[in-house]
Amino acid sequence: MSTTIRSFIAMDLPAAVISQLENAQQELKAFKLRAKWVKPENIHLTLKFLGNIPPGRIDEIAHAMTLAAEGRPALVLALRGIGFFPGIRRARVVWAGLAGQVAQLFALQRELEQYLADIGFAREKKPFKGHLTLGRIRQTVPPSVMRRIVDEFLNFGSDKFAAGRICLYQSDLQPSGAVYTLLKHAQLKPKMDG
């Protein structure tokens, strides 16, 4: 029996946004991309991948999340555009971008990163890129096809939505795909109208 759990910290998305992302995945499939698509219910905004952690550290991680969330209002975000990592010439990941309070999202992620570093979690070497992974591409796709996709989704977007909860998830890798279990969460302040 494993003495560690595979885990990550992410922000939840509203059901309407998940539905839009699922529709985008269906449209992307029409381009015949050979990809492993993320189950719509598993799409989330990752803030930090922790890897394998001892269960005894869950509470201190949750405390770091609470400190990062403290006093912050929920973020107002929107979906905006479709892109590829590392780029259209060697695309490996297809993602949906974000608009809205992206600067506040980056500030939240930096603060969370600091609180986690304070309790011994290594800082990310790569810069944070707020995005929503839709799928992982399993074959080389001609750049011309990728450009068509980018052009097709140039106006892809959503209405504004509130992202107000930071979650610690356990990730169990199964043959049918990853299964996520919510372990702890920290709430941002509700957005005030006006």
Can you offer a commentary on this structure?
This protein has 194 residues and is an alpha+beta fold. The chain contains four helices and nine strands. It has helices at residues 15-29, 58-69, 102-118, 143-152, and strands at residues 5-11, 35-37, 45-53, 75-85, 93-100, 132-137, 161-163, 165-174, 177-187. The strands form two sheets. Strands 2-6-5-4-7 form a five-stranded antiparallel β-sheet, sandwiched between helices. Strands 3-1-8-9 form a four-stranded antiparallel β-sheet. A hairpin with a 2-residue loop joins strand 8 (165-174) and strand 9 (177-187). The mean pLDDT is 92.
SSE arrangement:
Blueprint: E1 5-11, H1 15-29, E2 35-37, E3 45-53, H2 58-69, E4 75-85, E5 93-100, H3 102-118, E6 132-137, H4 143-152, E7 161-163, E8 165-174, E9 177-187
Antiparallel strand pairs: 1-3, 1-8, 2-6, 4-5, 4-7, 5-6, 8-9
